[in-house]
Amino acid sequence: MTVRYEVDGGVATITLASPETKNVLSAAMLAELPQHFAAAAEDDAVRVIVLTGEGNTFCAGADLSGASTADADSFAASGPGALVRVLEAMLDHPKPIVARVQGHVAGGGNGLVAASDLSVAVETAKFAFSEVRVGVAPAVISVVCLARMNPNDARELLLTGERVSAERVKAAGLVTAVAEEPSFDAVVRAYVDALLLGGPQALARTKELLRRVPGMDRDAAFAFTAQLSASLFSSDEAREGMTAFLQRRPAPWAPTTD
């Protein structure tokens, strides 16, 4: 088992649990991740997902040992497709995903960060688009990373492969926030708590908006969003949420406090 899955208090934590390999995206890990994302999608008790890692590295990217062996042709044929399946599982997931980036990130690990909805990196983490340094390109992850990063920053970081600070990639648009070690988990938890206040259907459809609207022309976007808005305002979730707001009480999906 290279990935650990735990559920507590409405939060599914998916942990890359191979610190001895710096959480490289091995064949086993790439196979396990979509299974855990699917489990979280199907579990009504799960409201938010936190993706994190063990050790001092969040994810070191592709398993270069697998790519450099006699079985390299097989790796080249299957590895990119397996990574696509992981990233699609994240992008299309109905529940928000928060990346808790507790350590360094290289290569394909940047794709996991970019495919998350929100991400918090510990201040000491270093990031590198290291592909060009080993003779390949950040091909698959460019789909998710370029959608987030400022174009000039993307050109610099993807072409040079330089190892940079968490603050540098935050300025580039790759991560949402950077936190010092003492407050790291508190910052992650603050995002999780904020997400738990949103209605499950509302969050899922907002993720759909974020995914679909930027690629639509204006007429199609207005037609889609008007229809979506009408369906949401007439939903049971919206009626319950608006009634709770007017009555100055928590929405029924909000966490209860003892």
What's the quick description here?
It is built from eleven helices and ten strands. The chain has 258 residues and is of the alpha/beta class. The longest helix is centred in the N-terminal third of the chain and has 20 residues, at 72-91.
Strand order of the largest sheet: 1-2-3-5-7-10
> Which spans have pLDDT < 50 for at least 5 consecutive residues?
none
Distance between the termini: 36 Å
Number of strands: 10
Order of helices and strands: EEHEEHHEEHEEHHEHEHHHH
Globular, elongated, flat, extended or rod-shaped: what is the shape? globular
Strand percentage, roughly?
Answer: 15-25%
Largest sheet features: 6 strands, mixed
Compute the number of helices: 11
The oligomeric state of the chains shown is: single chain
What is Rg?
A: 19 Å
Average predicted local confidence, pLDDT: 94
Structural class: alpha/beta
Helix content: 40-55%
Layout of helices and strands, plus pairs?
Layout: E1 3-8, E2 11-16, H1 27-42, E3 48-53, E4 57-59, H2 64-67, H3 72-91, E5 97-101, E6 104-106, H4 109-115, E7 118-122, E8 126-128, H5 139-145, H6 151-160, E9 164-165, H7 166-172, E10 177-179, H8 184-196, H9 200-212, H10 218-233, H11 236-246
Protein name: Enoyl-CoA hydratase-related protein
Family: Belongs to the enoyl-CoA hydratase/isomerase family.
InterPro entries: ClpP/crotonase-like_dom_sf, Enoyl-CoA_hydra/iso, Enoyl-CoA_hydra_C, Enoyl-CoA_Hydratase/Isomerase
